Amino acid sequence: QMQLVESGGGLVQAGGSLRLSCSASVATFGSYVMGWFRQAPGKEREFVATISAWSGGITDYADSVKGRFTISRDNAKNTVYLQMNSLKPEDTAVYYCAAATLRSRAASLYDYWGRGTQVTVSP
Known about the structure:
By secondary structure, this protein is mostly beta strands.
């Protein structure tokens, strides 16, 4: 059973940056596809980014964050990151990391989830 713990959220002004981290509890972390999702108040959870297993050579981003966010992983540290630049108020949400065995944008295909970290972007 994998446990995921997110950190790095907070309050930032529009145009600023944050780096989210997600630490995993299993030694097999490298074998999992990792994803970031977010959920704003009153909205459904939406896909943000995903990174392939092992070397992380394949990444995918939602159009709304492409060019501003970067997903990466460090398998030696069992950690996946989300670097968020040029933040906008519409990026305000709870951000979740998740693990899957198949690369997908569909939240339903992710087997393990963290509890989330709040990101608030002020105008």
